Amino acid sequence: MQALRDYSIFLFYFLTAMMCTVAAASEITSSSSVSDQEAACKKEDLQSCYFLAERYLLGLGVSHNKEMAISLLNKACDRGHGKSCLKLGGWYVATITFGDSKNKTPEDSVIIGLFDKSCELGEMEGCAYMGTFYVEGAGVDKDISKSISYFQKACDGGYAEVCSGLGMMLIKGSTVPGDEKRGSAVPVDKKRGQASLQKGCDLGDKKACKYLDEK
Taking a C-beta distance cutoff of 8 angstroms, is the pair 182, 168 a contact? Predict the structure, then answer.
C-alpha cells in the first residue's frame, strides 16, 4: 500500500477538480447571492452550503477563506451531500500533492472514506477514484476485485470513460491494457468486457466505439 502523499497521479485529480470548479463558477454566482446562499445553508439547503464553500475557495464575491470552505463542505458531506464529500476529498489530496505544511490533512483512511461516501451518495466520479485507489494500492491495500466492483458501479451510473476502461481491463486481463508488464493481472472476461465497451460507446466515448469497430 502506498501513502497518498507518495502517489503522484493525484496531481491529475486535483487539476481535473479545479477545471470542474472553474467551469461551474458561473452557476455558483448566478444561482443566488452570497446572503441568500448563507441563509439557505443555515436552513440545511446543502447545495447552498456547497456553493458557499466554492465561493470561499475561489474568492467569488467573498474573501478567500479555506477554513470556512472546509467547514461548510464537512457540514454538507456529513448531512449527505455527495458532491461536498468529493470536493473535500479532492481538497485534501491537493494539499497533500503540493505539500503545503500549513494545512493539516486527516489520515489517509479518512480521505479515502470521503471518496467512498461520495460514491455511496451517487457521485460516480467518487466511485471511479475508489476503483483507481484499489488498482494502485493508493491509501488502501491493492485489491483488483474491489477495483472492478467500483468501476462497474461508476459504469452503471453512466460514466462512459470508466465503462471503456473497465472493458479494456477485462478483455486484456490487465489493469494497464497495452502494457501488461506494468499492470496487475485481471481475470479475463471478454463477454463482460465487450458489454462494458458497448455501454461506453453508447454513452458517447469514441475510443470505445473505435475499438468495437476494429473487432
Answer: no
Alpha-carbon distances of 38 from 49, 73, 169, 176, rounded to whole Å: 7, 13, 45, 46
pLDDT in tens, 119-150: 999 999 999 989 988 988 888 998 999 999 99
Average pLDDT over every residue of 41-53? 94
Q: Residue 133: inside a domain, yes or no? A: no
Q: What is the DSSP letter of 139?
A: S
Please list the alpha-helical segments (H only) found in the chain: 10-23, 25-31, 34-42, 46-58, 66-78, 82-98, 108-120, 124-136, 144-156, 160-172, 190-202, 206-214
User: Are 51 and 151 found together in one domain?
Assistant: no
71 in any annotated domain: yes
| Grid cell of 9 as nine digits | 497521479
Asked if the structure places residue 52 within a domain, the reply is: yes
The rounded distance, in Å, linking the Cα atoms of 49 and 52 is: 5
User: What pLDDT does residue 203 have?
Assistant: 96
Give which of 124, 205, 130 is closest to 160, Cα–Cα.
Answer: 205
What is the grid cell recorded at 174? Answer: 490487465
137 in a structural domain: no
Q: What's the CATH code of the domain at 47?
A: 1.25.40.10
